[in-house]
């Protein structure tokens, strides 16, 4: 450890720095060896900064890992380092090593986030005051417990850090904690958070459930991520080898990191998230507006929205990188001569556009009723371009669906309204015959772009 030394800042009085309590290590990784701690910057030792070729004119990313069972860096660390350098080749990517404290019994490691946060704050303050390095260039990225380390660090620095990104901040011990001991919006000029594994009751959820940033994004509702069930994880291991075996245990929690990596690598495919009050409202397609900052980019190019209360945002993703999908709200008004209500009905929609097509998208509606408009969300994994044709098929029920034994249920549909989240276009599709009848277990019904003034939906 390092003894005290004195630092003179111009005409100011001498300031006493004490680095003796710092146990964390600060490794400046390199693009060529993103998985190796080849050069350590030691707080208080100015020569270590020049020896590690720290770039004083570029931005600095500080990566902070979370709790680890094995006491070693997890496989995502070099992947994130490499992606950061790929996007920002001249930047400094520093990995904080607090492995000795993060591999203890979880409650003990959680308690150590305070000390590690203090370490990071001293390190950042030293860079600023010793080298006049602006905190406007500093971006902390913390995963799980590391997100709270970043928050504590941000609350303790003399001046505000530019940005903190929380990657599925840990839930246990923090869901009901005071803002001063966890990540919060006050910890940086801009705090954005990805919540990817908030399953279970609040006190048992792996990831924190409540909003803790200026922008809080909940991919796939934040509960569970596609591709993270056992069968799909085993398939990934079969395809990618044993290096992906750890995904089996923490797939959804770690997805937050890979979504951020996606935002670094696929600049031309920004993932969109949409402000919404609840997952249920989002799943009805009710929240695909981009007016008044209601939509935002996920990850690196997130737009800075600083509201007094946290902004919850939602989106869907694919199961593998690139994760981007294209969101659509579909509204259908069902007509029938006899009042009818059907529960838990299965449909398939097909979209045909100028660039591509997406067929047989499965949709389950909890209830459909006569003379009522139903709204729901669907998404496509491909960019179909401008939508030209919509087809709808009502799937046959199970053998046990007794209500359908005495006749085939049928609804009339005149128009299908579609709003595209990514382009914000609102379109109306008409039946070729003016009116089409959708029969359960029958063939697909086709709708084409309406002509003239009826082609744009002014009601959405």
TrEMBL record:
Family: Belongs to the AB hydrolase superfamily. Lipase family.
Catalytic activity: a triacylglycerol + H2O = a diacylglycerol + a fatty acid + H(+)
Localization of this protein: Cell membrane; Secreted, Extracellular space, Extracellular matrix
Principal place of residence: membrane
Keywords in alphabetical order: Calcium, Cell membrane, Chylomicron, Disulfide bond, Extracellular matrix, Glycoprotein, Heparin-binding, Hydrolase, Lipid degradation, Lipid metabolism, Membrane, Metal-binding, Nitration, Secreted, Signal, VLDL
Organism per entry: Podarcis muralis (Wall lizard)
PROSITE patterns xrefs: PLAT
Record-given protein name: Lipoprotein lipase
């Amino acid at each position: 450890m390092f003894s005290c030394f004195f630092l003179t800042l111009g005409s100011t009085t001498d300031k006493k720095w004490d680095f003796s309590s710092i146990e964390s290590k600060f490794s400046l990784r390199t693009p060529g060896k993103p998985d190796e701690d080849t050069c350590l910057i030691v707080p208080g030792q100015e020569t270590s900064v020049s020896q590690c070729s720290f770039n004083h004119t570029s931005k600095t990313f500080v990566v902070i890992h979370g709790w680890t069972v094995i006491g070693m860096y997890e496989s995502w660390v070099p992947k994130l380092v490499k992606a950061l350098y790929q996007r920002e080749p001249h930047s400094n990517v520093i990995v904080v090593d607090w492995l000795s404290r993060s591999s203890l019994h979880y409650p003990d490691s959680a308690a150590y986030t305070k000390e590690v946060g203090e370490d990071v704050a001293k390190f950042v303050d030293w860079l600023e005051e010793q080298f006049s390095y602006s905190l406007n260039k500093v971006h902390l990225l913390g995963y799980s417990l590391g997100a709270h380390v970043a928050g504590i660090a941000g609350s303790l620095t003399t001046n505000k850090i530019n940005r903190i990104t929380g990657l599925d901040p840990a839930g246990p011990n923090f869901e009901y904690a005071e803002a001063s001991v966890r990540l919060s919006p006050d910890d940086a000029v801009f705090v954005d958070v990805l919540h990817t594994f908030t399953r279970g009751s609040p006190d048992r959820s792996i990831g924190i459930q409540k909003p803790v940033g200026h922008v809080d994004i909940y991919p796939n509702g934040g509960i569970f991520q596609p591709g993270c069930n056992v069968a799909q994880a085993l398939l990934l291991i079969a395809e990618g080898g044993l290096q992906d075996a750890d995904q089996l245990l923490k797939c959804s929690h770690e997805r937050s990191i890979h979504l951020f990596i996606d935002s670094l690598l696929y600049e031309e495919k920004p993932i969109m998230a949409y402000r919404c009050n609840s997952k249920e409202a989002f799943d009805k397609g009710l929240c695909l507006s981009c007016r008044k900052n209601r939509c935002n980019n996920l990850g690196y190019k997130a737009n800075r929205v600083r509201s007094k209360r946290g902004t919850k945002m939602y989106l869907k993703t694919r199961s593998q990188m690139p994760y981007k999908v294209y969101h659509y709200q579909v509204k259908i008004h069902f007509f029938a001569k006899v009042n009818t209500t059907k529960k838990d009905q299965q449909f398939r929609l097909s979209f045909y556009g100028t660039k591509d097509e997406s067929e047989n998208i499965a949709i389950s509606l909890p209830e459909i009723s006569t003379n009522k408009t139903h709204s729901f969300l669907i998404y496509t994994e491909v960019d179909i371009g401008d939508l030209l044709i919509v087809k709808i098929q009502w799937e046959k029920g199970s053998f046990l669906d007794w209500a359908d034994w005495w006749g085939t249920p049928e609804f009339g549909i005149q128009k299908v309204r579609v709003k595209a989240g990514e382009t914000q276009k609102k379109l109306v599709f008409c039946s070729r015959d003016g009116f089409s009848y959708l029969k359960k277990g029958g063939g697909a019904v086709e709708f084409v772009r309406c002509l003239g003034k009826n082609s744009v939906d002014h009601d959405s």
